[in-house]
Backbone:
């Protein structure tokens, strides 16, 4: 059984409803149970005042998005009848969005875990190769440059592969928020933790950062500011590579070595 507490306002303004003594008594409430969501079990009082807990059988996420049946709009439902139904379906959509996100995210998070490991290992290797220049003799610089280029290609490939899966994760996260609202967001890090992964360091940006036109990023080459566009981790990889190459160009130029031209 899945449950979710929602604050239920006492009237459509969200304020306490006070009936004037001169008002006519409200019309009897209609039986709206036939419009209940198929997974709906019932309600109970929440632990906090003004809150109601809505209980449902578990959602799989494969169901259609919960929506109040169209037939309910053709009946003369007053606020007393329509509000509980609206709240019930709001709760159903939130729980359904959680189930759908978990279902969609599971294979993506499994794939993301291995791709993030590939990225961190490739980045560590690139850093190690670059640092070995400090102990590389003059006659071995070109061989070390070859190793650096190989490490750059590996880190670029790992970043691109990560951004592909991160883009999919960002999309399903955005879809969940679109259904449930920002206040009912189910973070991907929470779902990852449920699967046994620590995703606190994973770079998953808002979905717009994976769509064209891609975000801009800035690099400085030979003192000149340049701009390009890339997905988030690919941009980080490019900036790291450029910082390293700029350092090598500076040293090669000071040494009068024409190798710095090849690093442009």
Residues:
């Amino acid at each position: 059984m899945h449950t979710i507490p929602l604050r239920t306002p006492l009237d459509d303004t969200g304020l306490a409803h006070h009936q004037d003594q001169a008002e006519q008594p409200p019309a009897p409430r209609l039986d709206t149970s036939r419009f209940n969501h198929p997974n709906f079990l019932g309600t109970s009082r929440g632990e906090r005042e003004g809150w109601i807990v809505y209980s449902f059988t578990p959602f799989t996420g494969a169901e259609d998005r919960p929506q109040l049946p169209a037939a309910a709009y053709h009946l003369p439902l007053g606020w007393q009848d329509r509000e509980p139904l609206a709240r019930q379906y709001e709760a159903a959509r939130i729980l359904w969005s959680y189930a759908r996100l978990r279902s969609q995210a599971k294979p993506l998070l499994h794939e993301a875990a291995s791709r993030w490991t590939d990225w961190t290992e490739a980045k560590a290797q690139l850093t190690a190769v670059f640092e070995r220049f400090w102990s590389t003799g003059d006659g071995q610089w070109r061989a070390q440059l070859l190793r650096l280029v190989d490490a750059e290609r590996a880190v670029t490939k790992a970043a691109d592969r990560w951004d592909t899966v991160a883009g999919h994760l960002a999309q399903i996260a955005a879809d969940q928020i679109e259904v449930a609202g920002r206040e009912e967001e189910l973070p991907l890090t929470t779902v990852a933790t449920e699967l046994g992964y620590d995703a606190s360091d994973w770079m998953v940006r808002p979905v717009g950062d994976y769509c064209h036109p891609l975000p801009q990023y800035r690099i400085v080459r030979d003192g000149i500011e340049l701009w390009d566009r890339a997905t988030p981790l690919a941009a980080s990889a490019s900036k790291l590579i450029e910082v390293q190459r700029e350092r090598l160009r500076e040293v090669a130029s000071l040494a009068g070595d024409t190798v710095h031209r090849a690093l442009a």
